[in-house]
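Pilot study result, target chain (452 residues):
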Amino acid sequence: MNRTVRKLLALLGPLLLVLLGGAVFEGTASAAAPPAGQATRYTMTAFTNSSESNLYVYDSPDATGFALQKGPAYTPPSGLIRDPSIFKHTDGYYYLTYTTNWTGNTIGFARSTDRVNWTFLYNYTIPISGLTRTWAPEWFIDTDGSVNVIVSLTAASTATHFTAYKITATNAALTTWSAPTQLSGIGPNYIDTFIVKVGSTYHAFTKNETTKYIEYATASSLTGPYTLRKTGDWAGFGDWVEGPALVQLDNGGWRIHYDGYRAGKYWYSDSYDNFATWSAPTEVPGLSGFIRHATVLKETVPGGVTLPTNATRSLRSVNYPDRYAVARSDSLGYIDPVSTSSSAAVKQSATFTVVPGLADANCYSFRDSSGRYLRHWDFRVRFDSSNGTDTFKKDATYCARPGSASGSVRLESYNYPGRYIRHYNYSLRVDPYQNTDTFRADSSFTVVSPWA
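Predicted structure:
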């Protein structure tokens, strides 16, 4: 939220408090994040700059910080494994489809029970005469349950004039497929088409192979006709980019990961307005410069971090265990030393009531003894009374992720996914995730018995 709007909300806040007669204690919010005992898991499959013949598998609780699960996790019996796309089928298996070679007319299939150990199934020949290149197959599961693969095909003698086609599985075993159908309106010379469906509209993100931009089209049918809505550098992704892959975040936003192959970077960006605008591209921490053309699968799985709600607790720093999150007299958040010899006021400043998240009841908010909530403002942690706005509720909501030490927690911003509460020079901030041990420790806290 920009400063002008935030200042307006800040001015309205005190007026609301006067009208309501005191601190605003929020009611129960709706929930999009998984409930207690469950967690979101994002699985990424990719090939790498160092090998086109090996699959690497990563996972993440937040679609930002990915940890290697296995690499190489799969090597096909022959050919390549470029552009690996993953989904979980109704039979309980995970399936891959992938590009088998720079030239030819086949795509590959493999499956797994655990995402990290894969078995080759078969190479499938696309039944179109004269194909010279068959690239970037992507799974698309429609709302009717049909299993589709979107694939880029050309019969040209060079890597040009690609067109998007779809094939649909005609049996549950995914061994027989319909005749290919062209996606009308996408092409010629568009590749790496990735589709998501929102409501009754199909949204296609596809690389213009002539201009090297990722462009955007919509249709009311999977096979089109598609209408190009945004072209050129409409989203700020830049040029010489490819391999768009979208996944929905727990807060309802959409994240695109894509390959800045010419610069040797891997990026992500978020949208919250039905794909109209996007956040500034951010490099995928720890993986940018190594992975190529990935896809991301979102699942809800057992596990996660659960905090007690409607209970008072203190937040102890993992790497400075004599320091605790506090609200100082300037209303800003810090980690300060607290001990049995500390004054009652200091102990009270380090004590908070954990409540269901104001913006999502399956996340958390933290309220001090005066009724103020821990929230971020220009990415600095501070404590303010609620003004009842949606912006405030989101600023004051944090989703629990596993911390760097056993039993610890990291608190991810609800409205800025990928940013975490962390201390820096003992000040509490909401900073972008960094793939370093220092950041992971700085952003980890142990929830302990309250000081007051």
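One observation from the pilot: The domain at 3-34+304-448 is CATH 2.80.10.50 (Trefoil (Acidic Fibroblast Growth Factor, subunit A)). A full batch analysis is planned for the follow-on phase.
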